[in-house]
Amino acid sequence: MKRKKQPRRPSYKLHMLAKIAVMTCLGLSLTFTTAYAAEGDGALEKIYHVYVDSKHVGKVNDKEAIQNIMKAKVEKKESDFKDLSLRIGEDVSIVPERVFNPSYDNSGVSSYLKDKLSVKAEAIELKIGDSQVGYFKDEKIAKQALKAYKAKFVDMDVLDKLTSKEQEDDKDGYDMETLVNKKQDSDDLDTGESIITDVTLSENVSLEEGKAAPSNILTKEQGLKKLEKGTLADEVHKVREGEALVEIAENYDLTLDQLLDLNDGLKETSVLQIGQEIHVTDYQPFVDVIVKKETKAKETIDYETKVIESDDLYKGEQKVRQQGSEGEKIVHYTLETHNDHVTDRNTVDEKITREPVQKIIVKGTKVVPSRGTGNLSWPAVGGYVSSGMGMRWGSMHKGMDIAGPSSRSIVAADNGTVVSAGWDSSGYGNKIVIDHNNGVRTVYAHLASINVSPGQTIEKGRKIGVMGTTGNSTGLHLHFEVYKHGSLQNPQKYF
User: Is 5 among the domain residues?
Assistant: First the structure.
Protein backbone atom coordinates (compact mmCIF):
# COMPACT_ATOMS: atom_id res chain seq x y z
CA MET A 1 0.00 0.00 0.00
CA LYS A 2 1.53 3.32 -1.06
CA ARG A 3 1.93 6.14 1.38
CA LYS A 4 0.34 9.42 0.65
CA LYS A 5 2.80 12.28 -0.13
CA GLN A 6 2.99 14.69 2.73
CA PRO A 7 2.88 18.44 1.89
CA ARG A 8 6.16 20.47 2.38
CA ARG A 9 6.56 22.16 5.65
CA PRO A 10 6.35 25.97 5.84
CA SER A 11 9.75 26.11 7.60
CA TYR A 12 11.44 24.89 4.47
CA LYS A 13 10.05 27.83 2.50
CA LEU A 14 11.24 30.24 5.12
CA HIS A 15 14.71 28.76 5.06
CA MET A 16 14.95 29.22 1.33
CA LEU A 17 13.76 32.80 1.55
CA ALA A 18 16.37 33.58 4.22
CA LYS A 19 19.12 32.09 2.11
CA ILE A 20 18.13 34.20 -0.86
CA ALA A 21 18.07 37.35 1.32
CA VAL A 22 21.58 36.70 2.66
CA MET A 23 22.97 36.26 -0.82
CA THR A 24 21.33 39.47 -1.96
CA CYS A 25 22.78 41.47 0.97
CA LEU A 26 26.24 40.10 0.35
CA GLY A 27 26.03 41.23 -3.23
CA LEU A 28 24.96 44.70 -2.22
CA SER A 29 27.78 44.90 0.35
CA LEU A 30 30.38 44.12 -2.20
CA THR A 31 28.99 46.70 -4.54
CA PHE A 32 29.10 49.41 -1.75
CA THR A 33 32.71 48.66 -0.76
CA THR A 34 33.83 48.90 -4.30
CA ALA A 35 32.35 52.40 -4.51
CA TYR A 36 34.35 53.72 -1.56
CA ALA A 37 37.53 51.68 -1.57
CA ALA A 38 39.29 50.31 -4.57
CA GLU A 39 40.15 46.66 -4.36
CA GLY A 40 38.29 46.18 -1.06
CA ASP A 41 39.17 42.65 -0.09
CA GLY A 42 37.99 42.71 3.53
CA ALA A 43 41.47 43.47 4.94
CA LEU A 44 42.11 46.31 7.44
CA GLU A 45 42.99 49.58 5.78
CA LYS A 46 44.36 52.83 7.24
CA ILE A 47 42.41 56.05 7.05
CA TYR A 48 42.96 59.41 8.76
CA HIS A 49 40.49 61.47 10.79
CA VAL A 50 41.15 65.22 10.39
CA TYR A 51 40.36 67.59 13.27
CA VAL A 52 40.59 71.40 13.20
CA ASP A 53 40.59 72.94 16.67
CA SER A 54 39.06 69.70 18.00
CA LYS A 55 36.26 69.75 15.37
CA HIS A 56 36.05 66.63 13.18
CA VAL A 57 36.01 67.79 9.56
CA GLY A 58 36.22 64.44 7.76
CA LYS A 59 38.25 61.35 6.81
CA VAL A 60 40.97 60.93 4.21
CA ASN A 61 43.24 58.12 3.11
CA ASP A 62 46.15 60.37 2.17
CA LYS A 63 47.86 62.06 5.09
CA GLU A 64 50.58 63.57 2.95
CA ALA A 65 48.04 65.44 0.81
CA ILE A 66 46.68 67.18 3.90
CA GLN A 67 50.17 68.10 5.03
CA ASN A 68 50.95 69.49 1.58
CA ILE A 69 47.85 71.72 1.68
CA MET A 70 49.04 73.26 4.97
CA LYS A 71 52.59 73.58 3.70
CA ALA A 72 51.44 75.34 0.52
CA LYS A 73 49.35 77.86 2.48
CA VAL A 74 52.33 78.73 4.68
CA GLU A 75 54.77 78.96 1.75
CA LYS A 76 52.45 81.32 -0.11
CA LYS A 77 52.49 83.76 2.83
CA GLU A 78 56.23 83.41 3.38
CA SER A 79 56.91 85.21 0.11
CA ASP A 80 55.30 88.35 1.59
CA PHE A 81 56.59 87.98 5.16
CA LYS A 82 60.07 86.52 4.79
CA ASP A 83 61.35 87.68 8.17
CA LEU A 84 58.53 86.06 10.17
CA SER A 85 58.14 82.52 11.41
CA LEU A 86 54.82 81.36 9.98
CA ARG A 87 52.58 78.38 10.69
CA ILE A 88 48.97 77.30 10.38
CA GLY A 89 46.93 79.31 12.83
CA GLU A 90 44.55 76.50 13.79
CA ASP A 91 45.37 73.32 15.68
CA VAL A 92 45.16 70.60 13.01
CA SER A 93 45.25 66.95 14.16
CA ILE A 94 45.50 63.93 11.82
CA VAL A 95 44.52 60.76 13.70
CA PRO A 96 45.05 57.37 11.97
CA GLU A 97 42.61 54.45 12.22
CA ARG A 98 42.53 50.92 10.68
CA VAL A 99 39.09 49.81 9.51
CA PHE A 100 37.36 47.25 7.29
CA ASN A 101 35.85 48.61 4.13
CA PRO A 102 36.88 52.29 4.81
CA SER A 103 35.01 55.35 3.57
CA TYR A 104 36.60 58.79 3.15
CA ASP A 105 36.22 62.11 1.38
CA ASN A 106 39.59 63.43 0.24
CA SER A 107 38.12 66.15 -1.96
CA GLY A 108 35.70 67.53 0.63
CA VAL A 109 38.26 67.66 3.43
CA SER A 110 40.83 69.29 1.13
CA SER A 111 38.37 71.98 0.07
CA TYR A 112 37.46 72.69 3.70
CA LEU A 113 41.11 73.06 4.73
CA LYS A 114 41.97 75.29 1.79
CA ASP A 115 39.04 77.54 2.64
CA LYS A 116 39.13 77.61 6.42
CA LEU A 117 42.76 77.35 7.49
CA SER A 118 44.64 80.58 8.22
CA VAL A 119 48.32 81.37 8.40
CA LYS A 120 49.62 83.00 11.56
CA ALA A 121 53.02 84.28 12.62
CA GLU A 122 54.72 83.18 15.79
CA ALA A 123 54.79 86.36 17.84
CA ILE A 124 55.21 88.01 21.21
CA GLU A 125 52.10 89.64 22.65
CA LEU A 126 52.72 92.85 24.61
CA LYS A 127 50.13 93.55 27.31
CA ILE A 128 50.08 96.48 29.71
CA GLY A 129 47.75 95.90 32.62
CA ASP A 130 44.61 94.39 31.11
CA SER A 131 45.11 96.09 27.74
CA GLN A 132 46.71 94.50 24.70
CA VAL A 133 49.15 96.78 22.89
CA GLY A 134 49.85 94.38 20.01
CA TYR A 135 52.03 91.61 18.62
CA PHE A 136 55.72 91.83 17.78
CA LYS A 137 58.13 89.55 15.94
CA ASP A 138 60.12 88.88 19.10
CA GLU A 139 60.82 90.15 22.62
CA LYS A 140 63.69 92.33 21.45
CA ILE A 141 61.47 94.49 19.22
CA ALA A 142 58.75 94.71 21.88
CA LYS A 143 61.31 95.91 24.42
CA GLN A 144 62.73 98.40 21.93
CA ALA A 145 59.24 99.91 21.46
CA LEU A 146 58.82 100.21 25.23
CA LYS A 147 62.24 101.79 25.56
CA ALA A 148 61.45 104.29 22.79
CA TYR A 149 58.26 105.22 24.63
CA LYS A 150 60.19 105.78 27.85
CA ALA A 151 62.70 107.88 25.90
CA LYS A 152 59.91 110.44 25.36
CA PHE A 153 60.33 111.33 29.02
CA VAL A 154 63.92 110.25 29.79
CA ASP A 155 67.04 110.80 27.68
CA MET A 156 68.06 107.68 25.81
CA ASP A 157 71.63 107.79 27.17
CA VAL A 158 70.21 107.72 30.71
CA LEU A 159 68.02 104.76 29.81
CA ASP A 160 71.02 102.97 28.32
CA LYS A 161 72.99 103.53 31.49
CA LEU A 162 70.15 102.34 33.69
CA THR A 163 69.47 99.32 31.48
CA SER A 164 73.13 98.30 31.49
CA LYS A 165 73.16 98.41 35.29
CA GLU A 166 69.99 96.34 35.34
CA GLN A 167 71.50 93.75 33.06
CA GLU A 168 74.60 93.55 35.26
CA ASP A 169 72.39 92.86 38.27
CA ASP A 170 70.10 90.44 36.42
CA LYS A 171 71.92 88.27 33.91
CA ASP A 172 68.65 86.66 32.88
CA GLY A 173 67.63 89.91 31.19
CA TYR A 174 64.54 92.11 31.49
CA ASP A 175 62.20 92.30 34.46
CA MET A 176 58.92 92.70 32.58
CA GLU A 177 56.79 92.58 35.73
CA THR A 178 57.78 96.01 37.00
CA LEU A 179 60.17 97.44 34.40
CA VAL A 180 62.33 98.90 37.17
CA ASN A 181 65.54 100.61 36.11
CA LYS A 182 68.20 100.53 38.77
CA LYS A 183 69.14 103.60 40.79
CA GLN A 184 71.98 105.78 39.61
CA ASP A 185 74.64 107.07 41.93
CA SER A 186 73.45 110.41 43.36
CA ASP A 187 76.44 111.11 45.58
CA ASP A 188 78.27 114.44 45.17
CA LEU A 189 75.39 116.06 43.32
CA ASP A 190 76.38 119.62 42.39
CA THR A 191 74.14 122.68 42.52
CA GLY A 192 72.15 122.98 39.34
CA GLU A 193 72.47 119.29 38.54
CA SER A 194 69.76 116.63 38.44
CA ILE A 195 70.09 112.90 38.37
CA ILE A 196 67.48 110.27 37.59
CA THR A 197 67.37 107.66 40.30
CA ASP A 198 64.53 105.45 39.08
CA VAL A 199 62.40 104.87 35.99
CA THR A 200 59.34 102.63 36.23
CA LEU A 201 56.02 102.09 34.51
CA SER A 202 52.71 102.63 36.27
CA GLU A 203 51.22 99.32 35.06
CA ASN A 204 52.44 95.73 34.97
CA VAL A 205 53.88 94.74 31.60
CA SER A 206 53.86 91.19 30.26
CA LEU A 207 55.32 89.53 27.18
CA GLU A 208 53.74 86.23 26.20
CA GLU A 209 54.21 83.88 23.27
CA GLY A 210 51.29 83.89 20.86
CA LYS A 211 50.33 83.98 17.22
CA ALA A 212 48.82 86.68 15.03
CA ALA A 213 48.06 87.48 11.43
CA PRO A 214 51.36 88.42 9.75
CA SER A 215 49.94 91.78 8.67
CA ASN A 216 49.26 92.61 12.33
CA ILE A 217 52.85 92.18 13.50
CA LEU A 218 54.15 95.57 14.69
CA THR A 219 57.55 97.07 14.07
CA LYS A 220 59.27 99.10 16.79
CA GLU A 221 58.05 102.33 15.18
CA GLN A 222 54.47 101.09 14.89
CA GLY A 223 54.56 99.89 18.49
CA LEU A 224 55.76 103.30 19.65
CA LYS A 225 52.89 105.02 17.81
CA LYS A 226 50.37 102.72 19.50
CA LEU A 227 51.89 103.42 22.91
CA GLU A 228 51.80 107.16 22.21
CA LYS A 229 48.20 107.04 21.00
CA GLY A 230 46.99 105.02 23.99
CA THR A 231 43.75 103.14 24.39
CA LEU A 232 40.15 104.28 24.27
CA ALA A 233 38.59 104.92 27.64
CA ASP A 234 35.23 106.23 28.78
CA GLU A 235 35.09 109.91 29.70
CA VAL A 236 32.44 112.43 30.68
CA HIS A 237 32.23 115.77 28.87
CA LYS A 238 30.44 118.70 30.49
CA VAL A 239 28.57 120.83 28.00
CA ARG A 240 29.83 124.40 27.65
CA GLU A 241 27.88 127.40 26.46
CA GLY A 242 27.17 127.31 22.73
CA GLU A 243 28.27 123.70 22.17
CA ALA A 244 26.34 121.38 19.87
CA LEU A 245 26.31 117.57 19.67
CA VAL A 246 28.09 117.52 16.31
CA GLU A 247 30.89 119.72 17.68
CA ILE A 248 31.30 117.54 20.78
CA ALA A 249 31.43 114.38 18.64
CA GLU A 250 34.10 115.88 16.35
CA ASN A 251 36.25 116.94 19.30
CA TYR A 252 36.45 113.31 20.42
CA ASP A 253 36.80 111.78 16.90
CA LEU A 254 33.30 110.28 17.11
CA THR A 255 30.47 110.26 14.64
CA LEU A 256 27.15 111.68 15.78
CA ASP A 257 25.63 108.17 15.72
CA GLN A 258 28.44 106.84 17.92
CA LEU A 259 27.92 109.67 20.40
CA LEU A 260 24.16 108.99 20.54
CA ASP A 261 24.81 105.26 21.09
CA LEU A 262 26.95 106.11 24.12
CA ASN A 263 24.17 108.17 25.72
CA ASP A 264 20.79 106.59 26.39
CA GLY A 265 17.93 108.99 25.81
CA LEU A 266 20.06 111.48 23.89
CA LYS A 267 18.73 112.40 20.44
CA GLU A 268 20.01 114.51 17.58
CA THR A 269 17.27 117.04 18.35
CA SER A 270 17.96 117.15 22.11
CA VAL A 271 18.45 120.60 23.62
CA LEU A 272 21.71 120.65 25.58
CA GLN A 273 22.03 122.37 28.95
CA ILE A 274 25.22 124.04 30.20
CA GLY A 275 26.96 121.62 32.55
CA GLN A 276 25.08 118.59 31.18
CA GLU A 277 27.21 115.44 31.28
CA ILE A 278 27.75 113.65 27.96
CA HIS A 279 29.46 110.26 27.81
CA VAL A 280 32.31 110.18 25.29
CA THR A 281 35.41 108.13 24.63
CA ASP A 282 38.92 109.45 24.38
CA TYR A 283 42.40 108.03 24.14
CA GLN A 284 44.22 107.56 27.43
CA PRO A 285 47.86 106.42 27.82
CA PHE A 286 48.35 102.67 28.16
CA VAL A 287 50.87 103.45 30.88
CA ASP A 288 52.64 106.36 32.59
CA VAL A 289 56.40 106.59 32.70
CA ILE A 290 57.26 107.30 36.34
CA VAL A 291 60.58 109.12 36.73
CA LYS A 292 62.19 109.78 40.08
CA LYS A 293 64.87 112.45 40.28
CA GLU A 294 67.16 114.05 42.77
CA THR A 295 68.25 117.61 42.18
CA LYS A 296 70.06 120.48 43.86
CA ALA A 297 68.92 123.95 42.95
CA LYS A 298 69.79 127.48 43.96
CA GLU A 299 66.61 129.25 45.00
CA THR A 300 65.77 132.72 46.30
CA ILE A 301 64.24 133.38 49.70
CA ASP A 302 61.59 136.09 49.69
CA TYR A 303 62.15 138.85 52.20
CA GLU A 304 59.50 139.83 54.70
CA THR A 305 57.98 143.28 54.87
CA LYS A 306 57.49 144.91 58.26
CA VAL A 307 55.16 147.89 58.64
CA ILE A 308 55.68 150.36 61.49
CA GLU A 309 53.02 152.91 62.31
CA SER A 310 54.09 156.48 63.14
CA ASP A 311 52.28 159.71 63.87
CA ASP A 312 55.20 161.62 62.41
CA LEU A 313 53.57 161.01 59.02
CA TYR A 314 50.08 161.85 57.96
CA LYS A 315 47.58 159.08 57.43
CA GLY A 316 47.91 157.80 53.86
CA GLU A 317 51.62 158.64 53.71
CA GLN A 318 54.42 156.11 54.04
CA LYS A 319 58.15 155.89 53.51
CA VAL A 320 60.68 153.07 53.28
CA ARG A 321 63.03 153.04 56.24
CA GLN A 322 64.96 149.96 55.05
CA GLN A 323 65.01 148.36 51.61
CA GLY A 324 64.50 144.59 51.57
CA SER A 325 66.63 142.10 49.67
CA GLU A 326 66.10 138.43 48.81
CA GLY A 327 68.09 135.68 50.42
CA GLU A 328 69.47 132.54 48.78
CA LYS A 329 69.45 128.83 49.58
CA ILE A 330 70.58 125.52 48.11
CA VAL A 331 67.78 122.95 48.14
CA HIS A 332 68.24 119.21 47.63
CA TYR A 333 64.92 117.59 46.84
CA THR A 334 63.35 114.56 45.16
CA LEU A 335 60.83 114.77 42.35
CA GLU A 336 58.41 112.22 40.94
CA THR A 337 56.82 112.78 37.55
CA HIS A 338 54.18 110.84 35.63
CA ASN A 339 54.59 111.46 31.90
CA ASP A 340 56.41 114.73 32.71
CA HIS A 341 53.72 115.96 35.15
CA VAL A 342 55.10 116.50 38.67
CA THR A 343 53.09 114.41 41.13
CA ASP A 344 55.32 114.55 44.19
CA ARG A 345 58.10 116.79 45.52
CA ASN A 346 59.94 116.40 48.81
CA THR A 347 62.79 118.39 50.31
CA VAL A 348 65.74 116.25 51.39
CA ASP A 349 68.01 119.03 52.63
CA GLU A 350 68.14 122.82 52.62
CA LYS A 351 71.10 125.13 53.22
CA ILE A 352 70.78 128.93 53.46
CA THR A 353 73.71 130.69 51.82
CA ARG A 354 72.46 134.27 52.22
CA GLU A 355 69.89 135.51 54.69
CA PRO A 356 67.12 137.78 53.38
CA VAL A 357 66.98 141.40 54.57
CA GLN A 358 63.67 142.59 55.93
CA LYS A 359 61.96 145.56 54.29
CA ILE A 360 60.72 148.16 56.79
CA ILE A 361 57.97 150.59 55.88
CA VAL A 362 56.83 153.47 58.10
CA LYS A 363 53.14 154.15 57.70
CA GLY A 364 51.63 157.42 58.83
CA THR A 365 48.81 157.52 61.36
CA LYS A 366 48.54 161.26 61.94
CA VAL A 367 45.02 162.45 61.18
CA VAL A 368 44.65 165.86 59.54
CA PRO A 369 41.57 167.82 60.65
CA SER A 370 39.55 169.01 57.68
CA ARG A 371 37.96 171.98 59.52
CA GLY A 372 39.91 175.19 59.71
CA THR A 373 40.80 176.97 62.93
CA GLY A 374 39.43 180.31 61.69
CA ASN A 375 42.86 181.93 61.98
CA LEU A 376 44.69 182.11 58.67
CA SER A 377 48.48 181.87 58.60
CA TRP A 378 50.81 183.51 56.09
CA PRO A 379 50.64 181.28 52.92
CA ALA A 380 54.26 181.83 51.88
CA VAL A 381 57.69 181.44 53.45
CA GLY A 382 58.46 185.09 54.21
CA GLY A 383 57.98 187.75 51.56
CA TYR A 384 55.91 190.94 51.42
CA VAL A 385 52.72 192.27 49.89
CA SER A 386 53.70 193.60 46.50
CA SER A 387 50.14 194.49 45.49
CA GLY A 388 47.04 194.67 47.65
CA MET A 389 43.40 194.10 46.93
CA GLY A 390 41.50 196.89 45.08
CA MET A 391 41.23 198.70 41.80
CA ARG A 392 44.34 198.38 39.66
CA TRP A 393 44.87 199.43 36.03
CA GLY A 394 41.18 199.99 35.58
CA SER A 395 39.99 196.64 36.98
CA MET A 396 39.44 194.97 40.34
CA HIS A 397 42.44 193.12 41.81
CA LYS A 398 40.66 190.45 43.88
CA GLY A 399 43.45 189.45 46.20
CA MET A 400 46.91 190.33 47.39
CA ASP A 401 50.23 189.46 45.78
CA ILE A 402 53.12 188.15 47.91
CA ALA A 403 56.63 188.48 46.48
CA GLY A 404 60.21 188.19 47.67
CA PRO A 405 59.93 185.00 49.81
CA SER A 406 62.94 183.27 51.37
CA SER A 407 61.63 179.98 49.87
CA ARG A 408 59.29 179.46 46.96
CA SER A 409 57.18 176.91 48.90
CA ILE A 410 53.48 177.77 49.19
CA VAL A 411 51.65 176.43 52.27
CA ALA A 412 47.99 176.05 53.29
CA ALA A 413 46.66 179.01 55.28
CA ASP A 414 44.48 176.71 57.42
CA ASN A 415 43.19 173.14 57.70
CA GLY A 416 40.82 172.15 54.94
CA THR A 417 39.94 170.06 51.89
CA VAL A 418 41.31 170.67 48.41
CA VAL A 419 38.40 171.60 46.14
CA SER A 420 40.39 171.94 42.92
CA ALA A 421 44.01 171.81 41.87
CA GLY A 422 45.10 172.40 38.29
CA TRP A 423 45.27 174.79 35.38
CA ASP A 424 42.86 177.71 35.23
CA SER A 425 42.40 179.25 31.76
CA SER A 426 41.02 182.57 32.99
CA GLY A 427 44.51 183.95 33.75
CA TYR A 428 45.25 182.33 37.14
CA GLY A 429 47.59 179.72 35.68
CA ASN A 430 48.13 176.81 38.10
CA LYS A 431 45.59 177.34 40.85
CA ILE A 432 44.56 175.64 44.10
CA VAL A 433 41.27 176.21 45.94
CA ILE A 434 40.93 175.00 49.57
CA ASP A 435 37.62 174.82 51.47
CA HIS A 436 38.31 175.21 55.20
CA ASN A 437 34.85 173.82 56.01
CA ASN A 438 34.01 176.77 58.24
CA GLY A 439 32.65 179.13 55.61
CA VAL A 440 36.12 180.24 54.44
CA ARG A 441 37.81 179.40 51.12
CA THR A 442 41.30 180.40 50.00
CA VAL A 443 42.74 180.63 46.48
CA TYR A 444 46.44 180.23 45.50
CA ALA A 445 47.37 181.24 41.92
CA HIS A 446 50.27 181.55 39.41
CA LEU A 447 51.97 178.39 40.92
CA ALA A 448 54.91 176.82 39.15
CA SER A 449 53.84 173.35 40.38
CA ILE A 450 51.12 171.72 42.49
CA ASN A 451 51.69 169.15 45.27
CA VAL A 452 48.10 168.25 46.21
CA SER A 453 45.05 166.79 44.50
CA PRO A 454 41.28 167.38 44.75
CA GLY A 455 39.61 165.72 47.75
CA GLN A 456 42.81 165.62 49.79
CA THR A 457 42.67 166.80 53.40
CA ILE A 458 45.34 169.39 54.09
CA GLU A 459 46.79 170.53 57.41
CA LYS A 460 47.51 174.17 58.12
CA GLY A 461 51.08 175.10 57.17
CA ARG A 462 51.56 172.08 54.85
CA LYS A 463 53.28 172.67 51.51
CA ILE A 464 50.78 172.60 48.67
CA GLY A 465 52.84 173.97 45.78
CA VAL A 466 55.71 176.12 44.48
CA MET A 467 55.53 179.88 43.71
CA GLY A 468 55.71 180.69 40.00
CA THR A 469 54.64 183.01 37.17
CA THR A 470 52.03 180.92 35.30
CA GLY A 471 48.93 182.56 33.79
CA ASN A 472 48.69 186.36 33.53
CA SER A 473 51.47 187.20 35.92
CA THR A 474 53.62 190.34 36.27
CA GLY A 475 56.48 188.34 37.83
CA LEU A 476 57.34 185.69 40.43
CA HIS A 477 54.73 185.96 43.16
CA LEU A 478 51.70 184.29 44.83
CA HIS A 479 48.25 185.66 44.13
CA PHE A 480 46.17 184.93 47.28
CA GLU A 481 42.39 185.36 47.67
CA VAL A 482 39.99 184.83 50.60
CA TYR A 483 36.23 184.21 50.47
CA LYS A 484 33.82 183.97 53.41
CA HIS A 485 30.42 182.47 52.79
CA GLY A 486 31.01 183.20 49.12
CA SER A 487 31.88 186.89 49.58
CA LEU A 488 35.29 188.20 48.58
CA GLN A 489 37.39 189.33 51.58
CA ASN A 490 40.51 191.48 51.86
CA PRO A 491 43.21 188.97 52.81
CA GLN A 492 45.33 191.58 54.60
CA LYS A 493 42.79 191.91 57.39
CA TYR A 494 43.65 188.35 58.48
CA PHE A 495 47.31 189.08 59.11
Answer: no
Residue 253: per-residue pLDDT: 85
Residue 346 in any domain: the answer is yes
Domain count, the chain: 5
Same structural domain for residues 150 and 88? no
Residue 435 backbone zone (phi > 0: left; psi -120 to 50: alpha; other: beta): beta
DSSP helix/strand/coil, 363: strand
Closest Cα to residue 124, out of 109, 111, 136, 106?
136
Positive/negative CA dihedral, 469, 474, 477, 479? negative
Assess if residue 39 is contained within a domain: no
Q: Are residues 189 and 202 in the same domain?
A: yes
Global pTM value? 0.55
DSSP code for 264: T
Helix (H, G, I), strand (E, B) or coil at 185: coil
DSSP string, 369-394: PSS--S----SEES-EEEE-SEEETT
Angle of the 139-150 helix axis to the 220-229 helix axis, nearest 10: 50
Q: Which of 366, 396, 426 is the last residue of a domain?
A: 366
* Terminal Cα-to-Cα distance of the chain (whole angstroms): 204
The CA distance from 362 to 366, in Å, is: 12
Long-range residue pairs from 161-168, CB within 8 A, at least 24 positions apart, any chain: 162/196, 162/199
Q: Kindly state whether residues 223 and 128 are assigned to the same domain.
A: yes
Among residues 308, 339, 303, the alpha carbon closest in space to that of 324 is found at 303
* Residue 297 falls inside a structural domain: yes
Residues 94, 128 share a domain: no
Q: What domain range is 336 assigned to?
A: 293-366
pLDDT in tens, 241-296: 999 999 999 998 889 998 998 898 899 999 999 999 999 987 889 999 999 999 99
Specify whether the CB–CB gap between 481 and 442 falls below 8 A: yes
Tell me if residue 58 falls in helix, strand or coil.
strand
Q: What share of the chain is helix, strand, coil (3-state, %, to 5)?
A: 20, 40, 35
Please check whether residue 403 is in contact with residue 383, taking contact to mean a CB–CB distance below 8 angstroms.
yes
Residue 147 sits in the same domain as residue 174: yes
